Amino acid sequence: MKLKLIKATVIDIDKIFQSHTFVNSPKRSANKFVILKNCDELLLITGEINRFPYHAKLLEWYCNKYNLTFSWMHKPDFLEIYENDYSICGGGYIKFHLDKNEYEFYGFSTAYGRFENKKLNYIIDHSPVLNTARISISK
Fold it and tell me: Residue 27 burial by CB count (10 A; 0-12/13-18/19+): exposed, middle or buried?
């Protein structure tokens, strides 16, 4: 099955892809992420684990920023988006070594499940931020 999408967007809340100031900081070595699908667009939403302890908090940030209707099913770790064109496509973690331009995507979201490799690869291939980096995807 081929993805028929037009756009892939990385929403980097904490600007990890733009800053090398905390490369060696152990508490900033990994982020959470969720993949969100909106019509013909895939979004990778990522934020620092300390700031976003649950994947749902990333979605809450996004919904508040873009005025999407949502409801907490189990606060603070599970919310649903009530917009017809949106679907949550899993989540996970990113380990990064910015000085080496390396990123490892792994794990899963307890609330939303594991991300689909095909969707993540589409975002990576179509993102100017990630398509020049060394990427690994593991379990």
Answer: exposed
Answer yes or no: is 65 within a domain: no
Cα 84 from Cα 139, distance rounded (Å): 30
Total domains present in the chain: 1
63/30: higher pLDDT: 63
Domain range for 130 is: 7-53+85-137
Where does residue 15 fall: left (phi above 0), alpha (psi -120 to 50 degrees), or beta otherwise?
A: left
CATH code of residue 105 = 3.50.20.20
Alpha-carbon distance of 135 to 99, in angstroms, equals 14
Least Cα distance to 33 among 130, 101, 128, 99 occurs for 130
Closest CA to 16 of 77, 95, 115: 95
- The whole-chain average pLDDT of the chain stands at 85
pTM recorded for the entire structure: 0.85
CA angle (77 as vertex; 135, 51 as ends), nearest 5: 60
